[in-house]
Every structure is written in C-alpha cells, then in structure tokens.
Amino acid sequence: MIEADRVVSTVCPYCGVGCGMDLHLKDDFIFKVTSDHNNIVNKGNLCVKGRYGYDMIYSKKRVTEPLMRKTPQRAGERSQAFDLDEWRQVSWDEALDYTADRLVEIYERDGSDAMAVYCCAKATNEDNYLLQKMFRALFRTNNVDHCTRLCHAASVVALQMAIGSASMSNTAAEVIKTDVFIVTGSNTAETHPIIGLQMKEAVEKYGSKLIVVDPRRVELANWATLWLPQMPGTDVTVFAAMAHVIIEEKLYNQEFIDQRTEGFEDFAKSMEKFTPEFAESISGVDRNLIIEAARMYATAERAAIYWALGISESTHGVDNAFSLIHLALLTGHIGREGTGLNPLRGQNNVQGASDMGAIPWHYPGYMEVDDPASADIWEKAWNVEPGGLNQEKGLTTTEILSNVGEGGVRALYIMGENPMMAEPNLNVTRHHMENLEFLAVHDLFINESGAYADVILPGASWAEKDGTFTNTDRRVQRIRKALEPRGHSLPDVEIISGLAKRIEDRLGRPGSAYWDYRDPEQVLIEMGEVVSAYRGIRYERLDEVGLQTPVPDEDHPGTPFLFEETFPRGRGKFHLLEYVPSAEAPDHEYPLILTTGRLLEHWHGGTMTRNSQLDVLYPEALVEMNRVDAARTGVKSGDTVRVSSRRGSIVLRANVTEKANLGVVFIPWHFHEAAANLLTLDELDPVAKIPEYKACAVRVELASEDELVNPEARTRRGRW
Ligand code: SF4
C-alpha cells in the first residue's frame, strides 16, 4: 500500500454539491482521492467523478505552454486547429503582449460593444471577480456572461422577480428534515449524486415522501411515492394545476399569504383555468396524480422543492420557475428549516461566478449595471473616473455570439467555457466563431472552442491554485494548492492580472484599477468591501466547514437557510401565468421530442471528464428510446441510428429503455462525436434569454455502423 507524503484537503471541481475531498500525494503525484466522514457536505461520500476524475490534470493532451497560431486567423476564415503542429509555443510575455495588443486595437477602433468575455463557473470566485473587473473597468463593457445563462438563468430571473434572491433558500442536507419534497427537471442521482444520496436517505431512513415530476423515469423515481411523467415543455400546466387544487380545496396558508406575499387575488383568478383535466390534456399526466401531489405537498408540515435544468432550460423557463415559486408562496413552505425553493446549481462554482458579477446585467453582489448608484459604488472601488463604467446592460452568452460581425462583437475572451459544445444549434454557433476577429482562450485543453483561438493561455487546474468555490447551497469553501502548475501553466489570477496591467498601460490608464494582489484572499476581501454577503469571509474562517452566505461581518456564523422573516424584495410576489406551447412541436416529419442532459460519468462539454479515466467508463453517446418508439422505427439496443432535427443530424447507438417516456428521446450532450446541440433549437426565453435545450422535434432512423465517428467506443452501460 502506498503511504502518502502529504494529504491536501480541497473541494471537488465538478458539480455544485461541493464535496470536500482529500488529495493523497506521493512524490508530488496525486495517487488517490478520499473524503473525510466528518465533512458536513458529503460525510465521506464521493461520486465517481470526484473519486476518479482528478487524473485529467495529468492528461498528455493538457496544454501547459502558452500557444499562438502559426498562421494568423482572419474574420470569416477562422478554422479549428486541434493539432499541436498548427501552433507555436511562446513565452508568457509574448502571449500576454499579443493578447493585450489585439484586444486594445479592437477596443480603440470599435469601442466597448466590440468586446466580450465568457467567465467560468469552474474557476474560482477570485478568478471570476478579476476577469469581469478587467472587462468592465478597462474595456467598459458589460458583455460579460458565463454558463449560468445556459443552465439556471430562468430560475435566477424568476426568483429575483418573485422574492428578490436567486440562491437556494436552504441547505441541501436539510432534505432529511422535510416531510414531502418535490424533485422536478433534475436527474439528481446522476447530476448531483451526493444530494441524490441524501434524498434517498430522507425517504428510506427518515420517512420523507418524494414526488418526482420528470418526463424520464430518472433513478429517483424508484424512491418516489408519486412519479408524474409530463411531456417536455408542459411543466407550467402541471404545477399551475397543483396551485389550482390548493386554491380550490383551500389548502393554502392564509396567514403566510396575508403577511408575506402580494398579488394573491389576481393570481388565484388566473389559476381557475388550470384544472387538473386541462393539465392532463396537455401534459399527459393523470389528473388524479396531480391532485394527490398537490394535497401531499400542501398539507405537509415541512415541504421543499428541488429543481434543475429540466425546468429552466426552456423558452418559457421563467414561467416554469414561477409555477414552482407559487407553490411555496401559497403554502408558506419557505423560510423554515426543511422547506424552501432549491434550484440545484450545476457547476462547482456557478453560484460563486454569478455572485462575482460574471453576468451582463449585474455587478458583483447582483447590483444592477443600469443603476447609477451601483455604478458609482463600483467606480470608486475600481478607481474608475465618475461616469466611466458602462451603464447599458450587456449581451448574454448566446447574444454575444449572434452579435459577432461588423458593428457587433469582434473580440472574445473565453475562460474555461466551451460554446462549441454548449450553445444550441451548433452549426450556427460555428459560423459565429468563424467570424470573430480575435479569440483568446484560457483553458486546460484545446477543446472544440479553443481550436478556433488565436492564442491559448494555459491556466492552472483546481489542484494547482488557491481560492474559493461557492457551492449550490451558498457554502463558500477553500480550494488549496496541492501541486505546482504543470509545465508553464499559471494560476488564473496571475494570468488575468498580468494581462490587465498590459491593457491598462496600452490604454494610457496606468493605476486606474488595482491589479497587484498579494494572494487570492486579497481579491475576495476587495470584493467583500462592497458586497455585504461576502464581507465577513476570511480564508481562515473557511478552514473547518466553509461559510454559507450571507456572511455580513467577521463575527457572523453564516446563513443555513434564508427568508425566515422577510424576502429581499419585501413581499413575495405572485405572477400571472399562461400556458405557452414549446417553440417546436413534433410533427409527421420529426415525430419525437428530444430532451438533453447529463450523465453521472461526464461533465458538460467533456473538456475535463473526456480527458480522464472516466471516459473509459462511458466512451460514447447513446440515444435513449422507449421500446414502443424503438419498435416503430425497427431499432434495437445497440443499433446505430441517425437522429435528425431541422438543424442537423448526428449518428450514435441506441439504448432502448423504460427510462424514456413514449414519444421522448434523450441524448447526453458531453460527446463531440455526436454533439446533441447540433440538433437543439436556438430559441430563447424572452426574459432570461436562456435557450431551449429540453424540447425540440427529431426523427430517428437506422444508420450504418460506418457512419459512427468512433465505432470502437462501446459503453459498458448499454444493456444489449
Ligand atoms: Fe464532485 Fe459532485 Fe460528485 Fe460530489 S457529487 S464528488 S461535488 S461531482
């Protein structure tokens, strides 16, 4: 047995659960990952990604030197370059000077609207704060966004409008204290496995009742008292019908409604049409299941709702989220332990990146960019002249790309994101990427987006730097440097600061903002001087179990659950709802509905997991089909099929399974060989600007094995 020289405690870099983990090192090599049973978040448990996914840091494909293209790229002619022969290795000085020169040249010629940045929900709070500061303070643009736009933007908008705060209201582990909990639009057992484990424990050990509302028979449905399998895109009808039942049967909490909400009377009238019969006719869910679920949720002493991307990634994602928020406002199941509204955040630090202002409408701390008082505060904090910050709302991720071109976005800086896997309708995304005038990518690997870049800036992995992540239940935790960065890669704070200073010099604004940080903690303290939720956080205070925001001063113990007395906007507000059908319905030509999502073994566009041993466990995309749909098409498990939408086609193998509901197919979106987003629709929710990933019309037909991009790959999960 190998004896470790050192054990370094840190936090998992994959999902928003934020499991604590111990890296075991021998001769400066991580050979094992374990977790402490006393860890408050995960009690010693880790899923397969946390336990085995660390080895991507040693991948031979990792970029460890700054790279520049041998052949300069021009707008309209940009192409992908994965082969290292197409790049030349350069010094950090050359890479950063070149990046600064190109960005400043475009800014001085075309102004702030030509500049844009994707921050990164995998990077630390400190990295994200600095990157948005660089673009706001130096390039005067709010074209600052990250992948929250593609996951929970609709939840964020709805929660902000209804109660004034978009965070999970309660601690995830409180699920064992609920009597009834709803899980909807979330395959929690695969996407947030340790929270999924706690949910199973709540049912098995503590007698909680679980209601699953999901078009797929996800694993948690096996623990559920009720499973309501709605057709994709019909969520509003199911939850509005539950509200209808609660109102009709007077199961609502009158005292809570009177004291803590507004708009109930009009809302109640608007729910009259959402009868369970109407919901059944649209969603396919048995009306009796809807009635039973409504009674079960409303009459519980403590009830909570957990949701994820199945709710938010929709052209009516904001309405979907409103329909959940209404249930809590009707019944008063919020503001107490074991209750609440809990959007499960996907990435390890998507909550933190949003808190840090990596969004186009908000400075750090969700201060509105178009509010002159907020701009004034940040101008003082960043030493920007009065009126210097841009007070126009910026473009979202999808809008940044669709605005690429003359008079629009010309230069893009991407830190750790992969739009060429993550954006919908990738054939159109490709066209936008080709038209960029300058693209800088700051990442660990040359992924599908990095292959379009002019310059690659190799960042350090989470095990090679210090900083903080904020997990899904607002817990700020330390990540700790266990290793020196590989090759000449650098911690991201150093890359951004080095670049910012060069830009500042070129713009003739030396010393305009502070870029010389002693350590990452100093970055967090600078942000906390303005953002009260982080003001009381110091690294030494995080050593034991982290702290849950808000932490308004250095004596504050953190906040396990929110809204005990009031909501940030005062009263919780009911919003009127209408049912709006999905943007694209199935028809004769494309008779099935495609829904997309994640798998246990992989993460997002696969930049990390597909460069780890996890890829051996699940090396290929599969399309899940119901056996009736499969029989109609003549498809058996293991057959090669072509899935086509109006936007593109992919070829992959089929998995015929009872997990898939009739008329619905599911494809994970981690695999570039069969990228699900070649099929998806780039329609946006009108308010949150989140794309539709959960419902578009497709056709499945048999194809030849020769058409598979990687025919040797065979997942062990297939059951044929
Ligand atoms: Fe990491 Fe999430 Fe798995 Fe925990 S549940 S080990 S945070 S991927």
Describe this structure in words.
By secondary structure, the chain is an alpha/beta fold. The protein has four domains: 6-58, N-terminal domain of TfIIb (Single Sheet), CATH 2.20.25.90; 67-144 and 357-548, Rossmann fold, CATH 3.40.50; 153-344, Dimethylsulfoxide Reductase, domain 2, CATH 3.40.228; 592-713, Barwin-like endoglucanases (Beta Barrel). It is 28% helix and 18% strand. It is built from 22 helices and 30 strands. Strands 5-4-18-17-16-6-7 form a seven-stranded mixed β-sheet, with helices on one face. Strands 24-26-25-30-23-27 form a six-stranded mixed β-sheet. It has a five-stranded parallel β-sheet with strand order 10-9-8-12-13, sandwiched between helices. Helix 2 crosses helix 19 (492-507), helix 3 runs parallel beside helix 19 (492-507) and helix 7 packs parallel to helix 13 (317-331). The longest helix is centred in the N-terminal third of the chain and has 19 residues, at 92-110. Iron/sulfur cluster (SF4) binds at residues 12, 14-15, 17-19, 42, 46-47, 49-50, 193-194. Iron/sulfur cluster is lined by residues 12, 14-15, 17-19, 42, 46-47, 49-50, 193-194.
Radius of gyration: 24 Å
Largest sheet: 7 strands, mixed
Number of helices: 22
User: Approximately how much beta-strand content do the residues carry?
Assistant: 15-25%
CATH architecture field of the largest domain: 3-Layer(aba) Sandwich
CATH class of the largest domain: Alpha Beta
How many strand elements? Answer: 30
Q: State the share of residues found in helices, binned by percent.
A: 25-40%
Instruction: Compute the number of structural domains.
Output: 4
By CATH, the topology of the largest domain is Rossmann fold
